Amino acid sequence: MARANASWSEENFSCSICLDVFSSPASTPCGHNFCRTCITKYWDEQVKFKCPVCNKLFDTRPDLQVNTLFSEMVDRFGTSVRVKEQPCVEPAEVPCDFCTGTQLKAVKSCLVCLISYCQTHLEPHQRIAGLKKHRLVEPMDRLEDRMCKKHNQLLELFCKTEQVCVCQFCTETDHKSHPVVPLKEEYEVKTAQLGKIEAEVQQMIQERLNNIQEIKDTVYRSKADADREIADGVHILTALNRCIEKYQDDFNQMVKEKLKSTVKQAEDLIKELEQEIEDLTNRSSEVKQLSHTKDHLHFLQAFRSLKDPPPPRDWTTVEVRPPSYVGTLRRSLDQLEETLNMEMKKLRDAELKRVQQYEVDVTLDPDSAAPQLILSEDGKQVHDGGVAKALPDNPKRFANTIRVVTRQSFSGRFYFEVQVKDKTRWFLGVARESINRKDQIIVTPETGYWTLFSYKDGLVFRDNPAVRLPLRAELQKVGVFVDYDEGLVSFYDVEARVHIYSATGCSFTEPLYPFLCPCFHAEGNNSAPLIISPVNQTD
Asked: The CATH number of 10-136 is which of 3.30.40.10, 1.50.10.100, 1.20.58.220, 3.30.360.10?
């Protein structure tokens, strides 16, 4: 029996149609082997059925039979041979579209077939005369997307007018008058633009990362503020609770001392009465005993000692009065109130110092000042000049009322102070940007004003209805704090370190301007200016 040839080459295991190592080899009736897929596809495209090798014609399409022994030999030899001679496709490389097993790296792409070929499958294009006329280019992926759908030509140019890729025939028809450039040239332009876009995107990403960090920092600070506020509150409330407990103990002790004194007085009187009763009981016994004596001498001698008893106490004027507790609780509460007031003063001082941290530097806007107002050169003072000046019309200027706002507007937290010393009437607070500046209107939150109004008879927060406040005769400087996001406007007596009033639940939708109105002066009265003062936190 002949020994199998162990030195067969790849040619012995290659399909004569695809020129690749057999894949599922099948035999024809004439004895030749082909890949089952290759011979099936070959016969699908033929009118007559013949062997591609010996050209033997078959009357009917033959039933393909698997050559079992040959298939086993191919399995052992075929794959290793292909891999040794040609490199497999790597990532980012164009694969061969014709390989049915392990895909190999394409070396050329055909613009007619729209298929990429490895070196083995490219061989027919180098051998067959009809295929040699096909246009071969460097390997390209997605060839169908690179061809002009209208002219079936490679898209090699770029139309700058319509910003689309075109073929050479497109420049002679639909894009005849349009400027076109090679794809590489436009690629370089777009690549440069892409770098700019990437830089912009990275900047936007960084900005958003910064926003996230700012939000996290705000949350961190908010938590720290909350922890500090809770700690301060616990400290103060614990101290107040101890103070209340002390005053409660003192009050209880005072009441008990009064009761103890009354009880002792009663016990002493009872003891004295019991002693007198005992003495009287003894005297009664002596009298009874003497009354039974028949001896005249003894009777008279004993009677003499009974005649002068110690004078008894007049108990008709003696009484035990219950202790009076009138004013005891009140006095304890007065002391407690004094302590609470001291703690409240500390709290008010701490609160004012906290809002003063949001001080802003503001100056009055002369373009908004009413014609009769006089502003200082530094924009910090304003008073009524008594005579309206001829000023150019300005949409920001107040008319028919002597008011002024600052140059600066705000929409966060801010604080400023205004000196009102020697004034008998004034308005101050904040106003929204879109307030009516030309007509006389009622100053309320509905019309865009959050203001404090002072006159000789009182202090009022202008609302509908107005909120009347205790008159502060010594009010010299007013502090105004706004928390835009919280909808809060607060007023403070700076010198007394006292909170005057807070408007809460305000709805702010526009920037807010500090607002001042010195009011009219009459015969020298109320002629002092309103002065925007720097904050002095050491007061």
From this structure: 3.30.40.10
